[in-house]
Specification:
The complex is a heterodimer of chains A (316) and B (464). With 316 residues, chain A is of the alpha/beta class. Chain A has twelve helices and eight strands. Chain B is globular and about 65 Å long. The chains are: A alpha/beta (316), B mainly alpha (464). Strand 8 of chain A pairs antiparallel with strand 1 of chain B, so a sheet runs across the interface.
Chain lengths: 316, 464
């Protein structure tokens, strides 16, 4: 036994590895199988009659915009619009909370947050229910999905939908904005995390919007590279925009707001040079209204930044 | 295949060790050669031709070695042929892109070359092959007479992908005859585990901070966070590479090979000169033996000495990467070493506290040149480190460093502690005890847990 003691590490290691090996082999096999997975084909959502039949679902936001939502008259709000806002989301939402210009809102977000687990996850010691019960919000923004885009989509959507119902129950007066998941850059796409899957998930989320209390917003046109992916110049890891772009994201959120009584009568800001602006007053513009809204980001930003809290540039 | 992966630890290594252990001594080298080739092919699955290239260089250098040894009169010609052959492949694969980009810039042309993928390990095995034929030429050793032995020497998987650069002389005897004992397996497994811990539990974790800083964007980090970032990178690079070298040593031990140490507490140095005798020791030796000394070393007067240092440091920089920031890095190191040699070295060695402070500044700043390839980004980061310089920042979050210190504090502390000799002193005392075994077991399974959850980062020195 004394001699055996000299080789105790070898013995312990061999025994524990022997016991664990089936689990490890399973994990190895699963990881390599996942890497080879084909991305899901984005579904063309057929919810409202405005969806033109036979619209080809390209792997861009067009598949979610052109086919799903009715045209909505979004207006440009100011930063103060977000005084009674709650943002729920994952690491990209964390980015908005840290580097965006909407610091007056409340945030329930953390890296890795998922709709499937949000009921039990705690952020800073509170669950999402704690936060929803704590005060009255005028609007609740939700951005979840990128961390579970490889899971079974039906399960994910049912959990997501349960969250939306939970919000409706606890905050019946609030407008709920469901935010599309931001695309990823093509250089990071793999069998699980790819824009095909993201678009599919986004289109399913879009179906949850009823456009009386729940709205679906898609920011991807602001950051896309023209091929349905996140522009590689805006990111280092292909998944999160660089900090300096969260300001633009915030501006875009400011530019796409809905007032409490549903469709606001006020049209887009007069300074907008695009032709689409004129169509904004007619509810059924065939062009995705998001694009018009997105293109007005820069002009809207100039108008919506009344509080002057945007310290983008500081020269030393 | 990376050592710190589930595939290596739970499939390749047990399978290989089982076969190796059961093989009679006579054929162990053959099994090692075969197993190493399999290991290598796992890393070049997309380019199977690289296996052929690798085998070709082994065969070629083996033949050259024999010719140099037996054909004394034409030995120099054979040596020259061998060196050209070896370096041609390295230059082609590693530096043609770099040459073309610069030629295009100079000549205003638009020459392109298809994207060349570097055969893994080529920087290491090229240097090994070249050092072998030079040593045979210099009569430091006789040539290896068995192709299998030579193949096993060059390809042995513990040091194939990321060094240490083992010289032939170090292992020549062991290739012919070595004692396999359970004690060596025990020690080898312990050493391997320690290396694995350095890589997965310290390097990969602190690498997370460097990645976070890149994701934020260098224009959007506070100066404190910038310093934290580059210090995290300095630790990541060290523990990554040192961890890998320890794993190589441990694996070698299990097969009764004595693979030399590649690191000797470099962060305890008081001068850059001392640092490079403690960091990547086998690379420094290679340059000293095969470039510096043949050029005359420091025996031909001050001017020639400086010239020799300059050549060595230019090549050291280039060896690390085919890009101008590496050249700049090499030049800066040359500058510091010359400064120490002629001006401040004695002072720093005498007043070690000052030396440590000097190194505390100089190490992260030089690694910065190593870490960032793009000069524009380099400039941004450098100015972030020195906030009194004029610069523009965008959307910096107040107190960002507080958030990241909270997340990474324990890894910084581990990094500092394990850069000192304290852990080794403790380890020596508890080495044989059951407590040590349990501790290492915890380290091992902690690492496996991280790998299982996918918190895995590619080894920084792998583009070599």
């Amino acid at each position: 036994m004394n001699k055996g003691k000299q080789y105790i590490y070898t013995f312990l290691l061999l025994i524990t590895c022997f016991v664990a090996s089936p689990f490890m082999w399973h994990k190895i096999w699963k990881t390599s199988a996942d890497a080879k997975k084909e991305p899901a084909v984005p579904v063309s959502a057929n919810v409202t009659p405005t969806a033109p039949a036979g619209e080809v679902p390209a792997a861009t936001e067009a598949s979610t915009e052109g086919s799903a939502q009715p045209a909505v008259n979004y207006t440009a709000g100011s930063v103060s619009y977000f005084d009674d806002a709650l943002f729920i989301g994952d690491s990209r939402m964390v980015g908005i909370s840290e580097y965006g210009s909407l610091k007056n809102a409340d945030y329930f977000c953390s890296e890795g947050l998922q709709a499937s687990r949000i009921a039990t996850e705690a952020v800073d010691g509170k669950t999402v229910d704690d936060v929803l019960n704590s005060k009255t919000y005028g609007k609740v923004y939700v951005m979840l999905g990128i961390n579970e885009v490889g899971n079974d989509m039906d399960t994910t959507i049912s959990k997501y939908s349960a969250l939306v119902n939970d919000i409706k129950a606890k905050q019946p007066q609030a407008i709920i904005y469901l935010l599309a998941n931001l695309h990823v850059s093509s250089f990071v796409e793999d069998g699980i995390i790819n824009n095909g899957n993201i678009d599919t998930l986004n289109s399913r989320i879009a179906q949850l919007a009823d456009y009386s209390t729940t709205y679906y917003l898609d920011v991807n046109s602001v950051f896309d590279d023209g091929y349905g992916g996140l522009n590689a110049e805006y990111t280092s890891d292909g998944i999160h925009p660089l900090a300096k772009y969260y300001g633009e994201w915030s501006d875009w959120l400011c530019a796409n707001t809905v007032s409490k009584d549903g469709q606001a009568a006020a049209p887009e800001q007069a300074e907008v040079p695009q032709d689409n602006a004129a169509e904004a007053t007619t509810p059924f513009a065939a062009d995705a209204p998001q694009e018009a809204a997105a293109e007005t980001v820069t002009t809207a930003a100039a108008n919506s930044n009344s509080s002057g809290s945007n310290d983008y540039f500081s020269e030393y | 295949m990376v050592f710190s992966s589930l595939e290596f630890i739970f499939i390749f290594l047990p399978a290989f060790m089982a076969v190796y252990a059961l093989t009679p001594s006579r054929y162990k080298n053959a099994i090692l050669f075969l197993g190493s080739i399999i290991f290598y092919s796992m890393g070049v699955l997309n380019n199977p031709i690289y296996i052929m290239l690798f085998l070709l260089t082994i065969l070629f250098n083996f033949i050259i070695g024999e010719f140099i040894y037996y054909k004394r009169r034409s030995a120099k010609a054979w040596l020259t042929l061998g060196i050209i052959f070896n370096f041609w492949w390295l230059v082609f694969f590693k530096y043609s892109g770099f040459f073309l980009t610069n030629a295009n810039a100079l000549l205003r042309t638009h020459m392109t070359v298809k994207d060349i993928i570097l055969p893994i390990g080529i920087s290491f095995y090229t240097f090994q092959n070249v050092s072998y034929i030079i040593d045979v030429y210099r009569r430091k050793t006789r040539s290896e007479q068995s192709l299998v032995n030579y193949g096993a020497y060059i390809s042995m998987f513990p040091q194939l992908i990321a060094g240490p650069i083992v010289t032939y002389g170090t292992v020549a005897e062991q290739l012919k005859k070595r004692q396999h004992t359970p004690r060596k397996i025990e020690n080898g497994l312990k050493t391997f585990t320690i290396g694995l811990g350095y890589k997965v539990l310290i390097a990969n974790q602190l690498g997370g901070l460097w990645r976070d800083v890149a994701n934020i964007g260098y224009e959007s980090i506070s100066s404190k966070l910038a310093w934290m970032g580059i210090i995290a990178y300095s630790f990541q690079l060290y523990f990554d590479f040192m961890g890998y070298s320890y794993m190589a040593m441990g694996l070698g031990q299990m097969m009764a090979f004595d693979i030399p140490k590649n690191f000797d507490y470099p962060y305890l140095s008081v001068t850059m000169t001392e640092f490079w005798r403690r960091w990547h020791i086998t690379l420094g030796s290679w340059f000293r033996e095969n470039i510096y000394i043949p050029l005359g070393g420091n025996r031909k007067g001050t001017q020639k000495t400086v010239r020799n240092f300059l050549i060595v440091w230019l090549f050291t920089g280039l060896w690390h990467g085919a890009s101008w920031n590496f050249v700049l890095w090499g030049l800066v190191l040359f500058g510091l070493i010359m400064l120490e040699r002629f001006v401040i070295g004695d002072f720093l060695n005498k007043y070690r506290i000052v030396g440590h402070l000097y190194m505390f500044l100089v190490i992260p700043l030089t690694w910065l040149l190593f870490a960032i390839t793009d000069f524009h980004e380099l400039g941004i980061y450098f100015r972030r480190l020195l906030p009194f310089l004029p610069q523009k920042t965008y959307a910096v979050m107040a107190d960002d460093y507080v958030k990241y210190w909270g997340i990474y504090r324990k890894f910084f502390i581990a990094g500092i502690v394990f850069s000192t000799r304290i852990p080794e002193m403790i380890y020596k005392k508890i080495k044989g005890s059951p407590f040590c075994a349990i501790l290492l077991l915890a380290v091992f399974w902690g690492c496996v847990y991280c790998m299982y959850k996918g918190m895995n980062d590619p080894f920084l020195y792998f583009r070599f």
